[in-house]
Amino acid sequence: MPALLAALPIAVVLLAMAVLHWRAALAGAVGFGVALTVIWGTSGLAGSGRLLVGVAAEAASSTATILWIILPALAIYELQARVGALDRVRQALTQISDDRAVQALLIAWFFGLFMEGAAGFGTPAALAAPLLVGLGFTPVRAVALALMGHAAGVSFGAVGTPALAQIEMLGLLAQDLAGWTMLLHAIPMAFLALVVMRLATDAPLSRRQVGLALLAALCFLLPALALAWLSGPELPTLGGALIGGAAFAALIRWRCPKPERNGARWRLADLAPYLLILGLVLLTRMVPLVQSLLSGLWLGWQWADFSGGIAPLYHPGTLLMLGLVSAALLTGRGPVLQPAIGAALRRLAPVALALLAMLALARLMVHGGLIGQLAEAAAQAGILWPLLAPFVGVLGTFVSGSATASNVLFTELQAATAQALELPATLMAAAQAVGSAIGNAIAPHNIIAGAATVGLSGRDGEVLARTLVPVLIYTASAGAIVAAVLMCSW
Question: Global pTM?
Answer without folding.
Answer: 0.78
